Amino acid sequence: MVHAFADFIAGLVGGSGGLIVGYPLDIIKTRLQTQSVGAKHYNGIIDCAVKIVKNESVFGFFKGMGFPLATVALQSSILFGSYGNTLRKLSSWRNEAANQPPRNIDIFIAGGVAGSVQLVLLCPIELVKVRLQMQTHGRGNKMVGQGTPTYRGPVHCITTILKTEGIRGCYRGLLPIFCRDCPSYAAYFVIYEVMCKQLTFKGQDRPSVWALLLSGGSAGALSWVLVNPMDVIKNRYQADGVRHKKYLNLWHCCTETYRTGGVRVFFTGATINCLRGFPVSAVALSVYSLIMRMFGA
């Protein structure tokens, strides 16, 4: 029973730390992925970072972070709590001892289940985050892009979406997020657990902190490579509507993205996703594992 709650607490702390570490790179990734191929405003990661600082100050790297930070604790708690409890349930169904290492197939299934369960909360969070990140206005609402900001903040953003698009609008992009996160987290946890085992040397009963950091970082970077195309579609589809609607539906978003940018556009932001994924996951997974140790798990 203690372990069941420990997963949620450890996920809460680890997820919050990971968000803060990787948020500036997440801003850059979103800007790069959602810009039009024929009218690029940014010419790469460095150019994007420089323009954000120049036009929006350093605070531009933290646009839209308030809402995710306020809710990521719950989202991460659901993710890690679902993962840990599903993994233990699968092991109990096989009548395996509690101290026996879980099978990779069980880790894969538990990761996929966890990635799916957290979508109920994650989808609205991602939608608000993307909409706010796409506003290129500086502090004090000085114009950097066009006109005045559509949204004055997270609360105004979510209330505006509810008013103009209804509750269904809050789950715009749910399918691409599902297609991104279900396989992503399945791979994510398998890579992490396998690397932790490989980096646990003779004489050690558990991996060191450095092994946890390296395993977590590698899991985050590699899992993002697998799902980057769906992340591009997700961001474009959710960003649509900040000023006007460009896509009729999800399929139209996919076909238009391919028509205007070819296959290459689906890998926009892959580099920064990996760069961001490493520190975010290194912090999130290592903190999660260390807290679970404190609970005797």
What gap, in angstroms, lies between the N and C termini?
A: 11 Å
Shape: globular
Largest sheet: none
Secondary-structure element order, as H and E?
Answer: HHHHHHHHHH
Strand content: under 5%
Low-confidence segments, given as residue ranges, are 141-145
What value does the Rg take, in angstroms? 20 Å
Provide a brief overview of the structure.
This protein has helices spanning 2-34, 45-56, 66-93, 104-117, 119-133, 154-169, 174-198, 209-239, 250-261, 270-294. The protein is mainly α and 297 residues long.
Question: What does this molecule look like?
Answer:
- This protein has 297 residues and is mainly α.
- The protein has helices at residues 2-34, 45-56, 66-93, 104-117, 119-133, 154-169, 174-198, 209-239, 250-261, 270-294.
- Helix 7 (174-198) packs antiparallel against helix 8 (209-239).
- The chain starts with a helix and ends with a helix.
- The model is unreliable at 141-145 (pLDDT under 50).
Element layout with pairings:
Elements: H1 2-34, H2 45-56, H3 66-93, H4 104-117, H5 119-133, H6 154-169, H7 174-198, H8 209-239, H9 250-261, H10 270-294
